[in-house]
Write a structure and sequence with these properties.
With 117 residues, the protein is α/β, with parallel strands linked by helices. The chain has one domain: Orthogonal Bundle (Arc Repressor Mutant, subunit A). It contains five helices and six strands. A two-stranded parallel ribbon has the order 1-6. A two-stranded parallel sheet has the order 2-3. Strand 4 and strand 5 form a beta hairpin. It is globular, with a radius of gyration of 13 Å. The two termini are 23 Å apart.
Length: 117
């Protein structure tokens, strides 16, 4: 499968990348920011994730910080909902951190193509 083309609006670009994260894998805010051509915008990626909960097709639970910590967990409906969603995909979480983070990390730069027009 070839690289996916990403849209131009920042939040939509973030959501497009997050929709590509495979089941049972995670990525980071910074990796998404780099992949969409905005390497200094990891906090904006976080804001996009906070605003994504009304969109049922954006698996925001698969986005963690650069160390594998569930820093966005407070923005989910239940206290442990982010962890529960990850664990339902076979991702182990201990003390709010993804176990074997490096092993299940998904790098979106390998999967997308930025439109430079």
């Amino acid at each position: 499968m070839g690289k996916q083309k990403i849209e131009d609006n920042f939040f939509n670009r973030v959501y497009a990348v997050v929709r590509l994260i495979p089941y049972g894998r995670v990525t980071s805010y910074g990796a998404i920011a780099h992949a969409i051509g905005s390497p200094l915008a990891s906090k904006m990626v976080g804001w996009a994730m906070n605003n994504s909960h009304a969109l049922h097709d954006v698996p925001a639970h698969r986005v963690v910080n650069r160390n594998g910590l569930l820093t966005g967990k407070n923005h989910f409906a239940g206290e442990n909902m982010m962890q529960q969603l990850l664990e339902s995909e076979g991702i182990y979480v201990k003390e709010n951190k993804v176990v074997d983070f490096e092993k299940i990390f998904w790098n979106p730069q390998n999967e997308i193509m930025i439109d430079d027009e």
